[in-house]
Amino acid sequence: MKTFTATIRDTLAAELRRDPNVFLIGEDIGAYGGAFGVTRGLISEFGPNRIRDTPISEQALIGTAIGAAAAGLRPVAEIMFMDFITLAVDQLTNLAAKLHYIYKLPCPIVVRTPAGGGRGYGATHSQTLERLFTGTPGLHIAAPSTAADASALLQSAIRGATPVIFIEHKLLYPLRWEIGLTLPPPLPFGHANITHSGNNVTVVAWSYMAHLALTAANQLAAEGIGVEVVDLRTLAPLDEETITAAVRKTGRLLIVEEGPKTGGFAGEIAARIFETSYDYLEAPLRRLAGPDTPVPASRTLEAACIPTVETIANAIRELASL
Amino acid sequence: MKTFTATIRDTLAAELRRDPNVFLIGEDIGAYGGAFGVTRGLISEFGPNRIRDTPISEQALIGTAIGAAAAGLRPVAEIMFMDFITLAVDQLTNLAAKLHYIYKLPCPIVVRTPAGGGRGYGATHSQTLERLFTGTPGLHIAAPSTAADASALLQSAIRGATPVIFIEHKLLYPLRWEIGLTLPPPLPFGHANITHSGNNVTVVAWSYMAHLALTAANQLAAEGIGVEVVDLRTLAPLDEETITAAVRKTGRLLIVEEGPKTGGFAGEIAARIFETSYDYLEAPLRRLAGPDTPVPASRTLEAACIPTVETIANAIRELASL
Amino acid sequence: MTFHSDFDCYGRMVLIRRFEEAVERLFSEGRITGTAHVCIGQEAIAVGMAAAMQPNDAFTSTHRGHGHFLAMGGDPGRMMAEMFGKATGYAYGRAGSQMMSDLSLGFYGANGITAGSMGLACGLALQAQYHNTGRVVVCTIGDGASNEGMFHESLNLAALWHLPLVVVCENNGYAMSTPLSVGLANQSIAARAAAYGITGTAVDGNSLSAVRDAVSLALTQARSGKGLQLVECHTYRLSGHSKGDKREYRSPAEEAAAWENEPLARLAAELEKQYPDAPGRIAQLNQQAAETIAAAIEFAVSSPDPDPSTVCDDLFAPHLPTA
Amino acid sequence: MTFHSDFDCYGRMVLIRRFEEAVERLFSEGRITGTAHVCIGQEAIAVGMAAAMQPNDAFTSTHRGHGHFLAMGGDPGRMMAEMFGKATGYAYGRAGSQMMSDLSLGFYGANGITAGSMGLACGLALQAQYHNTGRVVVCTIGDGASNEGMFHESLNLAALWHLPLVVVCENNGYAMSTPLSVGLANQSIAARAAAYGITGTAVDGNSLSAVRDAVSLALTQARSGKGLQLVECHTYRLSGHSKGDKREYRSPAEEAAAWENEPLARLAAELEKQYPDAPGRIAQLNQQAAETIAAAIEFAVSSPDPDPSTVCDDLFAPHLPTA
Ligand SMILES: Cc1ncc(C[n+]2csc(CCOP(=O)(O)OP(=O)(O)O)c2C)c(N)n1
Ligand SMILES: Cc1ncc(C[n+]2csc(CCOP(=O)(O)OP(=O)(O)O)c2C)c(N)n1
Ligand SMILES: [Mg+2]
Ligand SMILES: [Mg+2]
């Protein structure tokens, strides 16, 4: 049994060993091991040249990663909390995402970043901000919900040629999974996973919400409600085919998203289903997401902002009964 | 007949005259009058204290506007091209949008910014980036399509207590409308406008696309296709009621968006209609938007990236015939 | 708040120390959660700044803001309640440790984004200048924050516009685990002032009087129209960056040496040298601080949780009166 | 590209001048559209830098990049075709004036975001250091760009890491309409170097040899492991910022004075003083430049438009070989 944290660390170590062009860059990733300990210990094996602590300079950190990638290195950058990626939106939007289209340069950067609430960190340390990037052509986005997927996708991301935003949910870090002695093989982006099979309601989710959806599906199986859980694994590219098949199978769709409902990625998925599978729906689609508000620090208030196994299960029950 | 540009200028002048706490802040807005000439001439009436040229420092410019607003002033900031607002995403997301919710401070800032393609400016000067903000609770977003609406909404924005992203499409600037001697009264946010009435297909659009949709609707009237055009005017708050009524009226919906289709705001609208008006739809909803690619500079290529009256009309015809 | 004597200052400093110690203890006991950055060892800067300020002046803080807030007059009970996420907290539990504020005290808030309040501070100062209110804004940042682009943009703009702004850098030697030498190409932050055509000052940040004098002078200059001032205060962050910090990036010897120079004991020693009755007064202030903190915790613990149904309230400010 | 003599340099400088004049003319005739920022008056910097560089070195440019690109060996025909939005342009019409590049020349592109290529330059330099390739990166920015946060973050990081990077600031007195005095609190950009523990150099940017010497020295230092260098070149932007610029923010007298000091005539005069055969050679180079530009326009005009069906191609790079 290995934690999500340790699995990512082992994957980074394996990639660092495999390819001398791979290096890590970020704030306090060396001796400190990163705010969540993901890179802990790596500096003793790989040294400060490959585990590069930067000043608190998110723009330059990401810009430097982009330039290094354009010249042939394979940087894996860490943004300490996804909330701070707001400071690098320019470099990611106006440079990384356009580097190949306009300049014909490769841009194999991976930007790892912890996202999400549930730890009482407050409004500027708890956001899920994939919405800042899902509308930017030229970026890939991974949001795994298990350690194995995280490892497999991270390997792909590092070995690819495309800028990747790699979202690690904070609540996944301490969770444990059975991971064999060898890491899983790389998993190409764009392949969703059916983590639970059922005939009544399809649930589409990603990152920590996919984990909760699976738990809810297991619970509901006992009640005789069959839930098809589609764990997206990557948001860009999006595996529309798998989603569509799952929706057509059950005729009912719930999309679960951690962030505020308005303007989230669930809307995109809903629109695509609307466009492609309108005739297959037997009930109105539903989005379960956070309210349109910042994430407050107090545990009581924070809990009111994030879908839980219970609210997911309730939403599924409701949909199933329509 | 007055241009969009002149109408905004006159509105700014009127607000500057009305309230000594109103001031403008931005790059080259003084003697130069802004990249699109919107503020041309204002410095001679109001002086450099109220028409404040800043260094090229988008973060500090927006941060300063936020602080001034928190202390009681009413800054109207200009970001020269919306593409550069990427540099201020942190200040807008992590500070402005949360200032009242967390700190109980008012934040009456208006961030005016020219958006959109059609002028051959290339990939970093042609984007429509409302998608960076539509998912951020705490911000208001205006995207008018006529001079009168721009004036009315700008007045509301300046007099309000909330941070506003105010999108001015570059192709609207030179267009002319009949504007009376006095400016229109302020228009509260959250009220869409039915700019064309029809029974066959509803088109929802905003900013320049609402302008094009209206033209298409007028053309199609001659062909006997009745188009209900909903010009959103503001994206946040969103007038869901008017959209819903229009969709229920025609049973068919086309959403037109200038930016890339994936991850745009059209998805949000589609999801809401799905949730609220599923039973009223007689045909699958359609989104007409740009392809998932940066906006190239060449006119030939750029034209392939942005909906036109023709592509809008075709999409309506298709929907009407389903 | 007003400080009438160095004993008043000592009283607040020891209150800050006890508050932070309580925060560390409550975290380790699992009674409060989330995050917090304590300022043990930096109390002289917080109180020195506050003692130099005038009642109408404004202050912007950092992620490490408890000491600043207390020095500006923040109520330990409401602060503690905020740490506990209670309805009686400064932001009804919304802010937590990193985003507390009280405008009635001129305390425009802590900020979870490194250097994130520098633009805010410029704007507050611009309003003061615009309406010629005589207010000066004090903006605190850390040494690590001085590497953010916002530092550069704000200082350039504030210097250009002669804003009534005093930027105080609490140089505590580290940004999280990153020592100065890894974060700053030129380790003097005061030296960065020259890039903006102003003179920076560096002082001993563990000396209450040195901080107070330097900030007083800076405030006077700023208030008289001389514009932006930059004061660097050398200090040491005696605790970890935040609760999870094992401090493996520095040696116990280094920490022990820093403890020898900590500001609270230093001030006590100075007072004892100057005033014969100091020991008694200090003992009393220590006692008061302990009681205040105990009461603050009691207040927090006995306060109700916020009502989850209020979570969407107040997103937008109500309409403001206009001219 | 290689410059064997000052006449070679003159040849490129006059080519740049003619290219930019053509761009202005074509815009005013409505034959090209979009946007472009010409560098008339700044040719000595572009060519001085390029002449100092070694073949494997890399270059990052700004929005005002035609001169840089030509100096690095850019092909006027393909550049002009890009301006016309043609399929034969450097980016098949995708880039336009502001984003052209040619990696085979080490020209890592112009950039539409002010200071937006500074991180890119740091990263290119990091790769050179990582693999010890001996490459140095030259990163150009304008005076206005030095006010962006990215300037500060990049310089600090590059200085800390001793990256083989030479930042050349083309100080042409204005950022769009904003004179130095409105943009920079301290008007010396070279002086900003001290904030990063390095020494900045300021030179006459209208003197080819002054630029070449200063950049040569900087390149040598950077190549020898001394890390980041900052060179400020004083010049003047003789044209408007871009086509729409009425230049009302400055006086005709100021412009006239600047014309007296423009680099092309200055270099011609110097050459004529030194070489008896200079007038003839210069006349020939002028003639060649005119012909090259005429041919470039002809090439662009007669080239096909890009195929709109290709608009979504190449968004993602093909898979790269990995270790
Ligand atoms: C934009 C941003 N980047 C990174 C962080 C994470 N972080 C919080 S505090 C901190 C260190 C700040 O160092 P310094 O400015 O010296 O203040 P100190 O903690 O020493 O008081 C870091 C990296 C953050 N909160 N915001
Ligand atoms: C981030 C960003 N802000 C603003 C602009 C608009 N803009 C383009 S060039 C320019 C002036 C740049 O001045 P400087 O750096 O001195 O270069 P110069 O034009 O004088 O060569 C401005 C404001 C931009 N392109 N990008
Ligand atoms: Mg510090
Ligand atoms: Mg300039």
Give structural notes.
The complex is a heterotetramer, with two copies of chain A (322 residues) and two copies of chain C (323 residues). Chain A has two domains: 2-177, 3-Layer(aba) Sandwich (Rossmann fold); 193-321, Rossmann fold (3-Layer(aba) Sandwich). Chain A has eleven helices and 14 strands. Chain A has helices spanning 4-18, 42-46, 58-70, 89-95, 99-103, 147-159, 207-222, 240-250, 265-277, 299-303, 309-321; strands spanning 2-3, 22-26, 51-53, 74-78, 110-115, 140-142, 164-169, 176-177, 193-196, 201-205, 227-231, 234-236, 253-260, 286-290. In chain A, helix 9 links the parallel strand 13 (253-260) and strand 14 (286-290). In chain C, 43% of the residues lie in helices and 10% in strands. Chain C has eleven helices and seven strands. Chain C has helices at 6-28, 43-52, 66-71, 76-83, 118-130, 149-160, 180-183, 208-226, 252-259, 263-274, 278-302; strands at residues 58-60, 137-142, 165-171, 174-175, 178-179, 200-204, 229-234. Chain C has a single domain, classed as Thiamin diphosphate (ThDP)-binding fold, Pyr/PP domains (Rossmann fold), CATH 3.40.50.970. By secondary structure, chain C is an alpha/beta fold. One thiamine diphosphate (TPP) sits between chains C (37, 63-64, 112-114, 142-145, 170, 172, 174-176, 237, 241) and A (27, 56, 58, 80, 84, 87).
